[in-house]
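Figure caption, in words: inputs first, then the predicted bound structure.
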Amino acid sequence: MDRWVGKVAVVTGASAGIGASTCVALANAGLTVVGLARRAELVDRLKEKITGSGAIHSKRCDVSKYEDVVGAFAWVEQALGGTDVLVNNAGVLIPGHITDVGDSKIDDASILSVIDTNFKGLVMCTRQAVASMKIRNFDGHIININSLAGHYVPFDSCFNVYSGTKHAVTAFSAALLNELADCHSRIKVTSISPGKVRTSMSRDTERGLEPADIADCIVYALSTPPNVNIYELGVCSVAEKKL
Ligand SMILES: NC(=O)c1ccc[n+]([C@@H]2O[C@H](COP(=O)([O-])OP(=O)(O)OC[C@H]3O[C@@H](n4cnc5c(N)ncnc54)[C@H](OP(=O)(O)O)[C@@H]3O)[C@@H](O)[C@H]2O)c1
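Bound structure (NAP present):
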């Protein structure tokens, strides 16, 4: 991890769960972390958990809003010199049926918020981060927090459009890798696909991993040599059944 000490990592969805653990893990590894979330005050509280040489800054940002994304990355550029690592972690799962066929239909706004947060926001943040890396000729790293539901469709119908957005993350991660390779870029792209993790999104206490386990995976992907890219990492508890 030595080559990342002092570098700038932007983590989306930093106020809770996997994103919060990731902010602390990266700051402990010596990075300057910018945690984006709507509840920026929760990101500020992570500062007291830092035991390493890095730092955490908070920035209020709703990744589903284009202007928020542009504003947040412009702030990183101006205040900290640019984005070296991006962890696209912000995500929502809103249970309910997609259509009138079921009896617990979710509203249009909820469906759009899942699509806009899990996919549109991830694409827009990625474009901002890669632009920052390219202008400085820096070989950074994009890490997308995907899901096993981005590779298989869970039988539980409450997942509705969530699984579709995560499949889109799988396709986008591959397309981005191909584009970067075509353009002779050495920027890395890693898709990390967790199974159940104990956060507000999934409270399965028996078969879930801890958020810190996913933060460890992120540190592992970052710590590979410059010529090695982990493009997909599936990770779940030994107790979790396969889909
Ligand atoms: N938990 C699991 O079992 C599991 C499994 C596979 C994949 N994942 C993925 O892991 C990622 C993190 O989930 P988690 O389990 O840690 O969930 P979580 O504890 O509910 O945290 C979600 C985070 O996303 C942020 N967020 C939500 N909407 C946002 C928006 N529009 N703009 C900015 N930030 C937003 C939240 O912050 P604010 O509310 O403050 O904005 C929060 O920090 C997600 O992409 C999820 O799909 C989770």
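The mean pLDDT is 96.
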